Amino acid sequence: MFYPGTPTVNFSMGAMVDSLLGALVGALLPGRCTICRGAAADLLCGPCRAELPWNRVACPGCARPQIGPAAFICARCTVRPPPFEQAWSAFRYAWPVDAAIHRLKYHADFRGARWLGTEMARALSARPEALPQVLLPVPLHGGRLRRRGYNQAMELARALSRALSVPVDAAAARRLRATEDQIGKSAAQRRRNVKGAFAAKAQRVQGLHVALVDDVMTTGSTLAELAAECRKAGAARVEVWTAARAV
Ligand SMILES: [Zn+2]
Ligand SMILES: [Zn+2]
């Protein structure tokens, strides 16, 4: 598989500065917060980072945001338990994270991927749960991968792997067929669309605690389908990790 280390798309500086997201992940000034331009040791100053749409309280079954001091298994997950042990998402799908993901997905913004992956890793390492033994980026179909030149889930998994010291296995699962875009489909249509779309290799996942990695979780049907395949292939525990949870 071909995963270029450098973006395949070039941007004009003007376009980067025009975009609010460019302010976040593109045009960096050393020592300055990329949102408010105030003093910052990191990409964002403390107050801007604190105002990101963190998904701190969420259903552990489906990662849907919840209100209140403590997370609980939501009614949907109680009625229809998902085929994975746990779902976790660093952010809600809201500005500026939605824009960062858009740029990662459609404009090869690998700096954005590193930023998202690092923030995910910081939050994940603060959890009491044991880390998985392997990370599985949700695979793209070969044709789409060739056209795009990279897999955004792989870029996130790479950043997570570096920060958490958990290996990535991009060959443990593959996409058997191209699926239509899930955008605009109902939950039932999404499930049908991804049915049978993945295969997981038993010799790569058997007995392992795995985390599936993707950019956004919406209905979760893609992740559920891949998780079910990993379970069939003998995975001991399957978690799903995404940068953002859309609702
Ligand atoms: Zn700031
Ligand atoms: Zn739930």
What is shown here, in short?
The chain has 11 helices and 6 strands. The chain is of the alpha/beta class.
Could you explain the architecture of this structure?
With 247 residues, the protein is α/β, with parallel strands linked by helices. The chain has one domain (55-245): Rossmann fold (3-Layer(aba) Sandwich). It is 38% helix and 14% strand. It is built from eleven helices and six strands. It has helices at 13-18, 20-26, 46-50, 75-79, 97-107, 110-125, 142-148, 152-164, 187-194, 202-205, 221-232; strands at residues 86-92, 134-137, 173-175, 198-200, 209-217, 237-245. The strands form two sheets. It has a four-stranded parallel sheet with strand order 1-6-5-2, sandwiched between helices. Helix 11 links the parallel strand 5 (209-217) and strand 6. Helix 2 (20-26) crosses helix 5 (97-107), helix 5 (97-107) crosses helix 6 (110-125) and helix 6 crosses helix 8. The chain is globular. 40% of the residues are buried. The model is unreliable at 1-20 (pLDDT under 50). Bound molecules: zinc ion (2 copies). One zinc ion is lined by residues 59, 61-62, 64, 74, 76-77.
